[in-house]
């Protein structure tokens, strides 16, 4: 009787930033499908998701990936439910209103490879500082790129798992990297980001390193880490009109507070108006403007105003589920005006 390892992955109830949790379930004669993954449970009192006198929380499988890092294994992304099978308050995935997968999302996940012994990024010399940022972005060579073996191993694992990684690159600061994931469907994009984060954390363990998701782990003249959200729906993909894009972008302006609330903790340290960001309390948009809240890519303009938008405000530690849910809600609020304009 064949045995298979199912690694159930979920988000805990820690605030302001949820953490990944996982545990292994051994099953027999598994056929590799999501439908064959049983509902499971865990002790919510150990993850700040329940009280000790009523501690059971449920794990509902929502996505499955092969696990190339283990033999006969799969990674199962799950949602946390209450015992009555309603979504737990910590369940951001349940907030997404995208049943027809009309919304497409591409997340650009930045992070730092972090040395837990020194409390500094990989590449920082002991008792000193590296050269100022500049030579590290998309760099090559031992003086510029730190931890490439970890990043390449992670990329291979993601691709073997079936995660739609569309690229990687070294970022602006020392020890800072990025990967990009795209999916047709907001929930699927979030599933893939979380599993990719899980694989990155697990890979870094082997090297005695941590992953720092904080949006501004280095104070001073260093770029922070974001998770830019590229998004479109059928209206944006088919618009053919600058006016439509203006209407959608302007719908974000009155909702700065609602977006920032779910874009990641400590994002005020990153969104200062410097280092390719707009100030956290302001809103702006523009073509090719990396200092704007929302950038209209030049590719969208050159394609006759048919394409996507990039919200540059989400932080690296943000929950892609909650970010996507908020963006979808705002875009849908603009649809009536857009439909009237194109009628």
From TrEMBL:
Arranged from A to Z, the UniProt key words for this protein are: ATP-binding, Cytoplasm, Ligase, Nucleotide-binding
Where is this protein found? Cytoplasm
Q: Which reaction does it catalyse?
A: L-glutamate + NH4(+) + ATP = L-glutamine + ADP + phosphate + H(+)
Residues of the signal peptide: none
Q: Which GO terms describe its biological process?
A: glutamine biosynthetic process
Task: Read off the InterPro entries from this record.
Answer: Gln_synt_N (IPR008147), Gln_synt_N_sf (IPR036651), Gln_synth/guanido_kin_cat_dom (IPR014746), Gln_synth_cat_dom (IPR008146), Gln_synth_gly_rich_site (IPR027303), Gln_synth_N_conserv_site (IPR027302), Glutamine_Synthetase (IPR050292)
Q: In this record, what's one Pfam family?
A: Gln-synt_C
Superkingdom, natural source:
Bacteria
Q: Where is the GS catalytic domain?
A: 87-343
Q: Name one GO molecular function term.
A: glutamine synthetase activity
One term under GO cellular component: cytoplasm
**Start and end of every GS beta-grasp domain?**
4-85
PANTHER family according to UniProt? GLUTAMINE SYNTHETASE, GLUTAMINE SYNTHETASE 2 CYTOPLASMIC
**UniProt family annotation:** Belongs to the glutamine synthetase family.
Summarize the protein's role. Catalyzes the ATP-dependent biosynthesis of glutamine from glutamate and ammonia.
Its protein name is Glutamine synthetase
